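Q: I have 125 residues here and want to know how they pack in 3D. Can you give me a structure?
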Amino acid sequence: MTATWKIELIPVPVTDVDRAKAFYEQIGFNADHDYKVHDGLRFVQLTPPGSACSIVLGEGITEKTPGTQEIQIVVADAHAARKQLADVGVEASDVDAQPWGNFVHFQDPDGNKWSLQALESRPNG
């Protein structure tokens, strides 16, 4: 029997927690938690719409350098996702059509890179 493994949380390094939180909320992420555990440790968890995996940002969360994280999300429609970003003022690439899917790329205020991939079908659902 193969165990089920699901990615739960990905750290995103940022320089300004409140600015980053506002950015992610602006593009549709839900703010699940925002706790200051103690001085030097603030935990902010945000989840993209429909996702089982969240991101975490804050103080004392990761030693990664802001702007170095790269994350890919699967979306139903790359054109609709690009429009959603543009509608809230986020600069995003044009839709890049590839044999393995359509892609849209954007960055958060710290330069962390995001790729949105639209697939016609996924072998694992």
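Q: Anything worth noting?
A: The two ends are 20 Å apart (CA to CA). Strands lie at 9-11, 30-38, 41-47, 54-59, 70-75, 96-98, 101-107, 113-118.
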